[in-house]
Design a protein that fits this description.
34 strands, alpha+beta
């Protein structure tokens, strides 16, 4: 049965029946004004067959063919305007064309529906702050590249370090040798040599090489063998326990006494005393704890491999990240968005052989300002343990010179005693002859034994102590520091991801009311089982829900319809 349609208009608009894109209007009046301004042909008092949704247009098919959309107002629906896609045109006769149409439910019922909270899979966000959107996207990323200049940082380098000798004594009053210490300018109080290091009592004395009485570093390289010679000269090479390197920044001068001299004197069995002196030392005393070695801060990236993204999500992992490497095979991956401000690393160190230094992220993963995230820190490579040599012969002479001198003296006294006894037994001449011969024979034996012992001691190779690991490549290449390595995907992949986010927003995966009217030119929404209510025929409501579930883009300005090159900031 035919029904009257009071008005039918033919239009040419950019809308298509796949309903992947539609126009957004703030109200029905703005909607009607837009379509009315695009009317090309007007017909009144025409009818259509409701079963087939066809109306007979009193015009040539070639005339009607150039249009893709209709709007009409049916008296059966009061003053409501309907909008529809032209699906098909059939030639009837000259001057008549049957037009098959399908209602556009998005435009027809735009102001009759309410979208309730639904499971939103994707949409354009209304908060594009870097770090606000981090759900995985599953996009192809390609290989990563260095995204900016790498930075070496930290307290360790080969040009500014201190050599430390741990010794068990700095003074010893021996019979044939001495070891003593004094200061250029006597500090007060005199060190007690009982430091507490890192909260633990230390049984050794820490000598720092190359400090004057003002606790200033002495220019130039300090040869540790100067100190070793002093201990060798005193026959106390075993008093040197450790020799190692520490970064200068590890040394807090308020805990040291500079301008120390360590001296030794060795008195041989014959000849002049031999004195050795090691100046410009500092001695560690007092309580010492972990040391703050400074902070390094890095900027968050503004581009990816030279490409400046439009979408904030591209400035988060996995599109960008950075590594902190110790250049010795250990590194930790960090995400810029996990830092509340620019990434910052505080370095702390503990005074010990090989060193114990960490780079600790600050303001990281909501740990809080000023708090240290030790579980996420990177350990620096170990610093060199030095080797030192002890002169076996010198040590032997020093340690045995007293015994040899005493043995000679005892032999002389013994010979004198034998001579006196001979005087009594055999007369003056015979007694002297007998005692003298005995003394000469004993002296010869002593000298022979001495010479033999010295020869054997001289043949003993010098001993090497410690464990030299300065051959480590990291140390040799001046890379005993931390390295900041900013990484990103290549510009080609970044551009593809940016275009994708422009068109389809971000992964959301939440139950929420979809965002609307929040972007300058367009926004995309994709739901799962959309919840929509309204006074809408069931068939048309199902189509509306399907459009949301399939993914729908709303365009604010018809003149920019499908134009993804225009700005689309949050409003």
């Amino acid at each position: 049965m035919a029904k009257n349609i009071s008005k039918v208009y033919l239009l040419n608009v950019p809308l298509e029946d796949d309903m992947r894109n539609t126009l957004y209007f703030a109200n029905a009046s703005a909607q009607h004004t837009y379509f009315q301004n695009n009317i090309s042909k007007t017909y009144t008092n025409v009818s259509y067959q409701s079963e087939t949704r066809t109306f007979r247009c009193p015009d040539q098919i070639d005339t009607v063919r150039q249009y893709n959309y209709i709007m009409w107002q049916n008296t059966a629906y009061s003053n409501k305007w309907f909008y529809a896609f032209i699906k098909k045109m059939t030639y009837v006769s000259d001057g008549y064309t049957d037009v098959v149409f399908e209602v556009d439910p998005l435009q027809t019922f735009m102001f009759d529906i309410t979208v309730k909270p639904s499971f939103v899979e994707r949409e354009h966000t209304n908060n594009d702050t870097v770090g606000a959107n981090t759900l995985p996207e599953g996009l192809e990323l390609g290989e990563y590249v260095i995204n900016d200049t790498t930075v070496n940082f930290g307290p360790i380098n080969n040009n500014d370090f201190v050599i430390v000798l741990d010794v068990s004594m700095v003074e010893n009053e021996g019979t044939g040798q001495t070891l003593s210490w004094h200061f250029d300018t006597q500090p007060a109080p005199i060190p007690t040599f009982s430091p507490v290091v890192n909260g633990t009592p230390s049984a050794v004395i820490h000598l720092l090489l190359g400090y004057d009485q003002y606790n200033h570093r002495v220019n130039g390289y300090y040869d540790p063998n100067v100190v070793v010679d002093v201990y060798n000269n005193a026959g106390l090479s075993d008093a040197i326990v450790n020799a190692y390197i520490m970064p200068s920044s590890m040394i807090d001068t308020s805990y040291i006494y500079g301008g120390l001299h360590v001296s030794s004197t060795y008195r041989p069995t014959d000849g002049e005393p031999v004195t050795k002196d090691a100046p410009n030392l500092a001695i560690f005393a007092g309580s010492y704890h972990q040391r703050d070695l400074g902070t390094s801060t890095f900027s968050k990236p503004g581009s990816l491999d030279g490409y400046v993204p439009r979408n904030g999500k591209l400035k988060t992992f996995p599109f960008v990240y950075f590594n902190i490497s110790n250049n010795g095979g250990s590194s930790y991956q960090y995400r810029y968005e996990d830092f509340s401000s620019n990434p910052s690393f505080k370095m702390e160190g503990a005074f010990c052989p090989s060193g114990s230094i960490k780079a600790i992220p600050q303001n990281y993963k909501n740990i809080g300002s000023g708090e240290n995230a030790y579980d996420y820190s990177v350990n620096a490579t170990k610093l060199p343990i030095l080797s030192w040599g002890s002169d076996s012969y010198t040590n032997w002479l020093t340690q045995n010179s007293v015994n040899m001198r005493m043995e000679r003296q005892n032999m002389i006294m013994h010979s004198i005693g034998q001579g006196l006894s001979g005087l009594v037994q055999g007369g003056l001449t015979g007694g002297l002859a007998m005692g003298g011969a005995s003394a000469i024979g004993g002296a010869i034996d002593i000298v022979k034994n001495e010479f033999k012992a010295k020869t054997n001691a001289n043949l003993t190779p010098d001993q090497v102590h410690g464990n030299l690991n300065a051959g480590d490549l990291v140390w040799a290449k001046l890379r005993s520091q931390f390295t900041y390595l900013p990484m990103s995907i290549k510009a080609e992949y970044a551009r593809c991801a940016d275009d994708y986010f422009d068109a389809y927003g971000y992964q959301v995966n939440r139950m929420k009311t979809p965002n609307t009217n929040h972007r300058q030119n367009w926004w995309y929404t994709k739901t799962m089982n959309a919840n929509i209510v309204g006074n809408v025929p069931n068939e048309e409501m199902n189509k509306i829900k399907s459009a949301y579930n399939n993914g729908l883009t709303f365009w604010r300005n018809p003149s920019n319809f499908l134009n993804y090159s225009v700005s689309n900031g949050i409003v």
